[in-house]
Structures are given as structure tokens and as C-alpha cells.
Amino acid sequence: MKSIRIVLAGPRGKMGGIVQQMIKQTEGFDLVGCIDRKSGNPDLQAPVFDNAYTCFEQIEADVLVDFTVADACFEHCRAAIAQHVRPVVGTSGMTEKQMNELVQLTQTHKTGCIIAPNFSTGAVLMMQFAKMAAKLFPETEIIEKHHNQKVDAPSGTAIKTAEMLERDHANKTIPIHSIRLPGLMAHHEVIFGGEGETLSIKHDSYSRDSFMEGIKWAVHHVMTMDHFIYGLEEMLEN
User: Fold this and answer.
1) Buried b (16+ CB within 10 A) or exposed e, 224-236
2) Is residue 146 annotated as part of the catalytic site, yes or no?
3) How many domains is the chain built from?
4) What are the start-end ranges of the E strands in the chain?
5) Same domain, 91 and 32
6) What CATH number is attached to the domain comprising 216?
7) Is 150 among the catalytic positions?
8) How many other CB atoms are there within 10 angstroms of residue 39's CB atom?
């Protein structure tokens, strides 16, 4: 079986380091390059580029895995799609305009792209279960808690969950409460209120390892795609 050739953007980050090890340990995955603002990093056992356009012009790759920051990620994705390299993105914070441009690029180049606010399969199931409950409960709020190094708030997972649930609440805005404290990792709770009862649907990630199976799944799935999807739940539904 032909290996999937992967370029990793953000290899020195906390997520990037774990993803790098996952790629090396996964049969059928081949790390062929990295995108990092510190080019020539001797600790990375693959060619390192500080420019995404140069990377994809010189490296033959199938998939870009990106865990960086929003503006850098957007440029990485543009460069990848132009060379028919399929992005799998865990970076949050891109604007609606940037996302729409990526949708257009995937249509033009007929290249798959997956952007997911959360790669934990448990978190994806939490969102699906909450979507079921939203049809029966009129009042909903979301609490999301993360480590104090997370720069964006609310989290992409909380925003995506709220967007899904608002479709069943006649576009009613669902409040999101954000907490940033040391000692936390990634925790989401959707609380529903009804007459004389409440329902809580909760998911906790205690380690970044919880995201690895979802990333593997997305890398395999994006190889079969020629369009853009936002969220792993779209893969479940299809």
C-alpha cells in the first residue's frame, strides 16, 4: 500500500510534537516535510521550510496537517490546495472570510480539506448527542474550560456546538461560558434545562493523545475527498 505523504505545520508546538510522533509511529504515514518559522531545525527528521509555497513546490505531498495559528494556517492551506495537497487542520480562529476563500479554492482545485475544531472522537459524539437533545429542550448553555495557554475564547468546539444547536432553537443565541486555568486541558459541557429537570452532556480530554485517532481518521478520509468540510461530525453524517 502506498504511504500517505504528510507535511506537518507547527512541529515544535505542544500538539505538533505529539502529531509528529504519531505520524512516525503510524504504518502507512510518511513525514516528508515540516513548515516552521525556524527553518533548518536539527531536531526534526524531515526537511524544514519557513515558507509554505516553497515547501509545496519542492516536496511531493498528499496531506498537510496544521496546528499553528490562524493567519499562518490560512496561508499554509492556500499554498497546499494550489498544489492539490489536502489540508487537515486543527488550528482555530480563522475568519469567516478566510474559511469562505478556502471553500472556493477547494472547489476550484477539486481538492479535499478538513478543518475540525476538535479531533477527539468523544467530543464529536458529545456534539451529536447534544444535537439530539436540543430538539427536546428549550434552554441550553455551554461551558468550556481549557488550559491558560489557549489563546482563543470561546473555543472552536464550543462555537461549533452552539452553531449546530442554534439550528434547532430557531436561531436563538446559545450562551457560552469560557474558563482558562492552569491544570485544565480541554473540557466541554452542554447543559439543557426543561420543566423540573436538567440534562448535562459532557466531554473531557485529559491528554492531547485523545486527538490522535481523530487526526488519523481525518488524514485517511481527506484522501477520498474533493471538497471542504468543517467538523468531523460531517464525516459521521456522510
Assistant:
1) ebeebbbbbbebe
2) yes
3) 2
4) 4-9, 29-35, 48-49, 63-66, 86-89, 113-115, 139-146, 176-180, 186-194, 197-205, 228-230
5) yes
6) 3.40.50.720
7) yes
8) 15
Structural domain of 202: 121-206
Choose the catalytic residue: 84, 109, 147, 150. Answer: 150
This prediction has a pTM of 0.85
34 and 82 housed in the same domain: yes
Residue tagged 504515514 (cell numbers): 29
Catalytic residue chosen out of the listed positions 76, 145, 146, 203? 146
> For every one of its 238 residues, what pLDDT tens digit does the chain have, with 9 covering 90 and above?
689 999 999 998 888 899 999 999 999 999 999 999 876 555 677 899 999 999 999 999 999 999 999 999 999 999 999 999 999 999 888 899 999 999 999 999 999 999 998 899 999 999 999 999 998 998 999 999 999 988 788 998 999 999 989 887 665 889 999 999 999 999 999 999 999 999 999 999 999 889 999 999 999 999 999 999 998 877 766 5
